[in-house]
């Protein structure tokens, strides 16, 4: 196991606010649509969505201060870009695996050159080479979720943000922009209401550097053995093809990110 | 086949003759499209006014439609109105003869021709070419259509690479000549033209046009319309034998008669400034055509471009802008907006499989801020960037919106999804015209409506486009 940057070395002191109280204040400052996000997805135009995403991150930053962190998936980096517009002090983490495509690792190098404050987490523990094939759930758990748990712990996060979008397929439509998770963490999905085309529009308008794999036609990026080029409407249909996880989730956005002593490898 | 009588007394019963008069049946039973043939897209004030009047009188509810070959079409025309419409057009010195069909189509001309000292006015030469072609035996029954374009400077805005013959003016010392491209065409299997001559003396332009069209009449395939263009003759012969044979035909044409020398007088002053007006989906309302007529009345040159635009030329930018600003109906067209070119699609065309204009409207709505066209027609320095931001949408594989050479091209089709026939689009990207042509590469096939916006937005993202 390794991590490149430790929380203690860089982070300011975490906010003293308890997550429950902060969550309530955040909901108060940023009321959510009580229904499913579907209504707002088409009701808001692009500019309104960008403002809403920025407002959410701004409110969370005000509430959680340095205990707000952003998960950068090395894909589009939209949430990371939005967060940096809110405050250059907002920290982020990246999870890479032994199966990350070379294009993604190259993109990581370029991303770190621009944002050296990003922390990189990975799990280098010995594992069966074909675990991705024999037990993809376990593979994702060990290579993606476990390093993310360490990121949350080591960075002292009480609130974290990711780039989940309701229209990207699967159960993501059930997500909320502000989620209080069973693990006690507050999870933000600042671009939950964005269409796929709006993500690209933002990238074009704000000159966001994106993973070069998109130029090859990929629409959802993951580890090399479990990500394929696909046609069809479901953005995530190219993930874990031929497995029980097809089109599903690695677990980073769905599982508890609370690190339990003794868990994992 | 003889030259069709214009104006006609009734729509010819022979579809080939109807097409020679610029008439096509629409997908709406009983309604017709009338195309006018406007050399170089140049209209005077009376002609703009005549088109506006004709649209109000004969096709109320349908706009005038600009084509990608600088023509204007009228749609939703009742058959019994055709003779009256054609008489009205003839009264304004407009013609529809050869606007469609297996004959030389409208000769296109870059709008900037004759507005700068380094961009001579090629309209007189193009008119001579048209006159010579119309006197050529067999011209009304060629194996297939024949397209010619003239560009006045090396920027090559008249798309020489997708024409049967493309001429690009250039000067060597004191001598004017043309870079000549031959044998290009789009369609379901597009191919850009080959370079026929790096510097053809200007005096040889008319002999070459005469020779090429007769060469085509002699060698074009009359048994298979899908392989009947000059480009297919080229493919059958091979590039070099084709060029050699065409050159021999040119030599014969030079000898068979005396040809008038070609000269390019200095262009008139007062056309240095330009303003591009963009008409979404090529739709020009009659009131807008009247407004364009008033600009022409004011001494400005008003010329149709090839991507649903009209370029207004005048002595300086302030004069042009003020003149346009005095025409409120032109305000929407004068706003910078994305270049989204759509063929008529299922709105009118019998061959169309997809609602291209509907998709174009959605793209403009959602992507307009990604691909704003310049207020002025671009010069070469900005050309490649703008080409990359141009979206061309065709409603069937014929590719009439020039999707095959677009920065972002979409070609519509039908697919079965959940038991329902639904519109899908193939996505192409990376095409360009101008000085150096490039066919667009296939990026994705059979994209559903939900995917198209994202796919196009992605292609308009500089970091992805590269």
Order of helices and strands of chain A: EHHHHEHEHEHHEEEH
Whole-number mean pLDDT of chain B? 93
Figure out the total of helices of chain B. 14
| Poorly predicted runs of 5 or more residues of chain A | 1-16
Assign an overall shape of chain A: globular
Number of strands of chain A: 7
What does the largest sheet of chain B look like? 5 strands, antiparallel
Oligomer: heterodimer
- In angstroms, what separates the terminal alpha carbons of chain B? 51 Å
| Class by SSE composition of chain A | alpha/beta
Question: What are the segments of chain B in which pLDDT stays under 50 over at least 5 consecutive residues?
Answer: none
Q: Give the overall shape of chain B.
A: globular
Q: So, CATH architecture of the largest domain in chain B?
A: Alpha-Beta Complex
How would you describe this protein?
The complex is a heterodimer of chains A (265) and B (466). Chain A has 265 residues and is an alpha/beta fold. Chain A has a single domain (20-214), classed as Rossmann fold (3-Layer(aba) Sandwich). In chain A, 36% of the residues lie in helices and 9% in strands. Chain A is built from 9 helices and 7 strands, in the order βααααβαβαβααβββα. Chain A has helices spanning 7-10, 19-29, 38-43, 46-64, 78-86, 102-114, 131-134, 136-154, 196-205, and strands spanning 2-3, 68-71, 91-95, 119-122, 159-161, 178-180, 186-188. In chain A, strands 1-4-3-2-5-7-6 form a 7-stranded mixed beta sheet, with helices on both faces. In chain A, α2 packs antiparallel against α4 (46-64) and α4 crosses α5. The model of chain A is unreliable at 1-16 (pLDDT under 50). Chain B has 466 residues and is an alpha+beta fold. Chain B folds into 3 domains: 15-103 and 269-334, Sulfite Reductase Hemoprotein,Domain 2 (Sulfite Reductase Hemoprotein, domain 2, Alpha-Beta Complex), CATH 3.90.480; 117-256, Sulfite Reductase Hemoprotein, domain 1, CATH 3.30.413.10; 340-465, Sulfite Reductase Hemoprotein, domain 1, CATH 3.30.413.10. Helices cover 31% and strands 21% of the residues of chain B. Chain B contains 14 helices and 18 strands. Chain B has helices spanning 15-20, 45-58, 82-91, 123-134, 205-219, 230-237, 239-256, 286-297, 317-325, 331-334, 356-367, 380-388, 449-459, 462-465, and strands at residues 23-25, 32-36, 64-66, 72-77, 108-109, 148-151, 165-172, 175-182, 194-201, 273-278, 283-284, 301-304, 309-314, 340-342, 391-394, 408-417, 420-429, 441-447. In chain B, the strands form 4 sheets. Chain B has a 5-stranded antiparallel beta sheet. In chain B, strands 5-6-7-8-9 form a 5-stranded mixed beta sheet, with helices on one face. In chain B, β1 (23-25) and β2 (32-36) form a beta hairpin. Chain B is globular, with a radius of gyration of 21 Å. The model of chain B has no long low-confidence stretch (mean pLDDT 93). Classes of the chains: A alpha/beta (265), B alpha+beta (466).
